[in-house]
Design brief:
Blueprint (H helix, E strand, L loop, with lengths): L3 E8 L6 H11 L2 E4 L4 E6 L3 H8 L8 E6 L17 H10 L8 H7 L12
Antiparallel strand pairs: 1-3, 1-4, 2-3
Length: about 120
């Protein structure tokens, strides 16, 4: 399988498990970033189900996990994905696949469009 990004989000019923998860993320992915206490982006060639089976034993009753592929094949992130991140996260994403994300002038131009530009056209 080819490398891609998986976003992995958690909610914990009782306590954060950041330290336990860091060692697991390191073991199962080629690289990762954590952009909040509950959200990670993993760079891996493993299927999401494999990642899930390795992370699931770290969960306690009442904990939740959500794994979503951010990249599959050559489709770039950004067609229907948006985020506000510090520049270092964008740089990390692009370090894995050049040109993976767009930021800056393209996004600023979209924000200047009137809200009506995004409304569905009625026949």
């Amino acid at each position: 399988m080819h490398h891609r990004f998986l976003q992995i989000s958690f909610s914990f019923a009782e306590r954060l498990k950041i330290e336990e998860l860091e060692s697991t993320m390191t073991a199962i992915g080629d690289d990762w970033i954590r952009f909040s206490a509950l959200c990670w982006i993993l760079w891996t060639d493993k299927p999401a189900i494999h990642v899930f089976t390795l992370l699931e034993p770290k969960l306690d009753k009442g904990d939740n996990i959500f794994i979503q592929a951010l990249y599959d094949g050559d489709a770039p992130l950004g067609r229907e994905s948006y985020a506000v991140f510090p520049r270092w996260i964008w740089d990390w994403l692009n370090s894995k696949k050049a040109g993976y994300v767009s930021y800056g002038p393209e996004i600023e131009a979209l924000k200047r469009l009137p809200a009506t530009a995004f409304e569905a056209k009625k026949d």
